[in-house]
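Title: [Solved] Deubiquitinase 3D structure

Original question kept below for reference.
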Amino acid sequence: RELERDLREAVADEAFELHYQPIYDLSVERVCGFEALLRWKHPKRGTVSPAEFIPLAEELGLIIPLGEWVLRAACRQASAWPDELKVAVNVSAVQFTSARLITAVREALQTAGLPGRRLELEITESVLVANPGSTTAILHSLKSLGVRVSMDDFGTGYSSLSYLRSFPFDKIKIDQSFVRDLNASEGSGYIVRAVIGLGASLGMTTTAEGVETPDQLQRLRAEGCDEVQGYLISRPVPAGDLPALLRRLN
Ligand code: G
Ligand code: G
Ligand code: MN
Ligand code: NA
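Solution (posted by the thread starter after getting help):
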């Protein structure tokens, strides 16, 4: 397939770019970090979404070099930001269980001179479902590097509650589907409230994703959510736009 050949070439040429979406801390009303979101600048198709090419990269075994490129690029770019800003990187299932993960994270931090506490790794529930046995050891190895770990897209997978109890997550990212319905459906409001309460009880930070309207933001504030992320604050932007974005938001 054509896309397959192009992706192999793109990984070899590192023809990717990271965009960054701010994560906003409601307790201090400031940006506390950015989530790195991968973009492929395809010569003919334009920008291709990771939702399309990550599954293909996993299938072709390209996710390891690609994921390591993301880690290196994110750590290098974050090392130029003010010290209070963290960078969050998404880790796919295949990358999470690869034998190289811990080494790759350690090397990316070292090469960039970035302290581990400034890196957050986002892992989805589906990753845990696929590898419950090895997960605890991997998470502890990451945490021994000072890195924080977040459960991404919380509420969309399976066995969420037992996973929260069993695994040492620092943060819960409430899936955008619950935030979208926050003011339209009573049920979503109850779920968001329950997850924020659960996070607080377990000593985990809660971040609401996909915040698009002032009403949603107001509700999340009222419920005591720690952090928000979404188009209302900002869409993901190229690294060069971050200084102006920080001036506008902080
Ligand atoms: O940025 P966007 O909304 O297009 O992202 C689509 C999906 O791709 C999301 O699920 C997001 O988590 C995932 N994604 C974005 N960047 C990366 C990345 O660097 N690595 C992995 N594994 N997934 C990513
Ligand atoms: O799976 P993950 O949560 O990592 O994916 C983040 C995805 O959500 C990215 O593709 C990002 O572009 C997208 N996103 C971020 N903020 C919003 C938002 O406010 N609304 C919508 N619809 N998507 C968003
Ligand atoms: Mn994410
Ligand atoms: Na998410």
